[in-house]
Specification:
By secondary structure, the chain is mainly alpha-helical. It is about 45% helix and about 5% strand. About 45% of the residues are buried. Bound molecules: flavin-adenine dinucleotide. This is Deoxyribodipyrimidine photo-lyase.
């Protein structure tokens, strides 16, 4: 029996339950559908498209090594799958389950038209399955993590199949180049090419490279100048490696992996949040803050642009925003600082920041991006209060960001540590580096004043 393997954010052969199940039933038609209709305004951003191109090329090559190949089609998933099943005589579709609200709808629709079998495997535990004693899903991370740990370790990862049977005749496929996922004029992806190797082999390589640093992770992860974190996020987002594979590999490494595994669990937690609040990317978790008057108009637009371009006059913020633009990734501590700066110091709606990250991040993920933006903004179900305002200059000093700033803000590269966090206050701001677009105290006071009006 020929079956269809419907691939989305699960672009791997190892620990791929849907592939294993399909392969056991006979010939398999692996298909990736470029579907901008189903997610509507949540279709992939430019940085994610860059990643997708390379990840699909890598997957096709791995499939060919196994006697198979990747079929590419474009359109609404449900319609494409139904047409493909008709063309090929396939009667069953296997996939890994996804939790973005649009994918849940699509799975429902495909399930009505075809025999769809959904498998788990992109999370440590299936989202929605970690519940309280009263049978409710968790809203807060810490008890979620406690309960998740009771379910660990995750199942042992499944090996990649040895050979995948091909159908007698392959259906037609689009060509990847025709999809034009890569930037041309201008080609802004030079920094991406230097930093990343999308695909399953690249993910493996990142993991192996990170293993000797697991023990130091708890402290090093907070230091932007260090290579303290794994940089596995885009690989995890596109499903090039499973979290179970990571879990079992780091558990066998030297040093206590708990701090690292707690972060992998944040990814699971975020999925549990969007399962409960599907519109978390646009709606405040705390409705009490719905009336907050965000700044709008010409001055706010100019501030938003300065933030996007890394020209706010706050070196740590500017370094982060430029790292994001150049490589499609930003260090986690700096993500928090830049997000907090936009929302609190500039009093600009978190949704505009979330949208910019969505377009620019190679790891842009609906659940993780919305949950972290809302967490930082103080609007989330699991957030600090809005009144907790991060001080970017002291954060920069506390987490020794001098080297990081030098790497991303060349105008400041000549400054010593004592001056680099706040060159303006040190009296050595170069002419080609902007003055602060707002003072720290002034920004803080304005944010608190706006909050008072909704309390
Ligand atoms: C405003 C803001 C927006 C963010 N948007 C995204 C996003 O769109 N996609 C995304 O994957 N992460 C997002 N994060 C979380 C985090 O910054 C990144 O996952 C992390 O920086 C990725 O780097 P790493 O792989 O080296 O992480 P490591 O520190 O090595 O962590 C390992 C893995 O754990 C997961 N993880 C770590 N921290 C978090 C977290 N706070 N929330 C969810 N998962 C986490 C990631 O999958 C990561 O690859 C965001 C954080 C903030 C503050």
């Amino acid at each position: 029996m020929t079956t269809i393997l419907w691939l989305r954010r699960d672009l791997r052969l190892t620990d791929q339950a849907a592939l294993i199940a399909a392969a056991q039933e006979g010939p398999v038609i692996p298909v990736y559908i470029l579907d901008d209709e189903t997610p509507k305004h949540r279709s992939m951003g430019a940085a994610s498209r860059w990643w997708l191109h390379h990840s699909l090329a890598a997957l096709d090559s791995s499939l060919r090594d196994q006697g198979s190949r990747l079929i590419l089609r474009r359109g609404k998933s449900e319609a494409v799958l139904t047409a493909l099943a008709r063309e090929t005589g396939a009667i069953r579709v296997h996939c890994l389950r996804h939790y973005e609200p649009w994918w849940r709808n699509a799975e429902r629709a495909v399930g009505q038209a075809l025999d769809l079998v959904c498998h788990d495997g992109n999370y440590l535990a299936p989202p929605g399955s970690v519940i309280t004693g009263a049978g409710q899903p968790y809203r807060i991370y810490t008890p979620f993590w406690r309960a998740l740990q009771e379910r660990m370790p995750p199942p042992t990862p499944l090996p990649a199949p040895q050979g995948i049977a091909a159908p007698k005749i392959w259906p037609e496929s689009d060509s990847l180049a025709e999809w034009k996922l890569l930037p041309e004029k201008p080609d802004w992806a030079e920094g991406f090419r230097e930093e990343w190797r999308p695909g399953e082999a690249g993910a493996r390589e990142r993991l192996e490279d990170f293993l000797p640093r697991v023990a130091a992770y708890a402290i090093a992860r907070n230091l932007p100048s260090d290579e303290g974190s794994s940089r596995l996020s885009p690989h995890l987002h596109f499903g090039e490696i499973s979290p179970a594979t990571i879990w079992h590999r780091v558990a066998g490494a030297e040093g206590d992996p708990t701090a690292f595994l707690k972060e992998i669990a944040w990814r699971d937690y975020a999925q549990n949040v969007i399962l409960q609040f599907p519109d978390y990317g646009t709606r405040n978790g705390r409705t009490a803050l719905d009336g907050l008057r965000w700044r709008t108009g010409t001055a706010a637009d100019a501030d938003l642009r300065a933030w996007q371009q890394g020209r706010t006059g706050y070196p740590i913020v500017d370094a982060g925003m430029r790292q994001l633009w150049t490589t499609g990734w930003m260090h986690n501590r700096v993500r928090m600082i830049t997000a907090s700066f936009l929302v609190k110091h500039l009093l600009i709606d978190w949704r505009l920041g979330e949208a910019w990250f969505w377009d620019c991040l190679v790891d842009a993920d609906y659940a993780s991006n919305s949950v972290n933006w809302q967490w930082t903004a103080g609007t989330g179900v699991d957030s600090n209060m809005f009144v907790r305002i991060m001080a970017p200059l002291s954060q920069s000093e506390k987490f020794a960001a001098g080297g990081y700033i030098r790497a991303w803000v060349p105008e400041l590269a000549h400054l010593p540590d004592a001056a680099i966090h706040d060159p303006e206050a040190a009296g050595c701001r170069p002419d080609n580096y902007p003055a602060k677009i707002i003072g720290h105290r002034e920004g803080r006071a304005r944010a608190l004043e706006a909050l008072k009006k909704v309390q």
